[in-house]
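subagent[fold] <- orchestrator: predict structure for attached chain, return tokens only, no commentary.
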Amino acid sequence: MQKLVHGIFVFQESVHKPLRGFFEQLASGQSPRALFITCCDSRVNPDLMTQAEPGDLFMLRNAGNLVPPHGAAAGGEAATIEYAVAHLGVRNIIICGHSNCGAMKGLMDPGGLNDLPAVGDWLHHAEATRRIAKQITPGLNGAQAWEAVTKANVLVQIDNLRTHPVVAAGLLAGKLFLHAWYYSFPTGVVEYFNPIHNSWRTINPDFPVAFVPPGMPCDRIPSRAGTSAGAWISEGSRPSFNGGAANTSHLHQPEPPTDRHRRKKASPNRHESK
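subagent[fold] -> orchestrator:
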């Protein structure tokens, strides 16, 4: 606890004081670049991972980065999504799973949740992921299965996200874009689901913004019985199940926003008050 208390004083003296003008501007309101939905795992730090600044990311965090379908739960997820899209005007929603996710481990091994009834109840919102896991994990070792299930869950939650009225309306109007990410904290690699190739690919400095199109529900994403394993595990990690190429004629590659994804880490001078 002392480390956290000491950190407050370091922040106040070394960060807040030099950037006081910037923090004062934050008091006038927020205009986040994205709604970032991820796990509450302490090892996942979205601001650090994306080098975001205060005000860049509107956060929604819970065990397993789950998004209950509209009307399925009375938690804060629906309210957070609605506020971000309808009030703050967020145009991008990222759902980011991560390596070594304890929630996904619990989903794969429900027996380990006997003493965690609340966690077990919460994971009912990932029931579709659990059923998909039975189809995609045979033949995979433990680490591969864990990664495959975690990535499958991100895509399932993307599907659930579409059931929320503000999201459905935003997608229909072409004003909202959904992104599926996977973060490996041992390697620092972040992958995104590429709908053009129906696979997960590594984000690189020049990557074009690829989103999951509104017309691509979970049942059209390749499964073990489908075209490729790429939707569930990293491209090239093992051969396609059937070797067939995915039909991507219904998909398109969007143009990247002009000022959203190529920002350099800001220098203190940028935030000096005028």
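orchestrator: received. Logging for downstream: Strands lie at 34-39, 57-62, 92-98, 177-183, 190-194, 199-202. The two ends are 37 Å apart (CA to CA).
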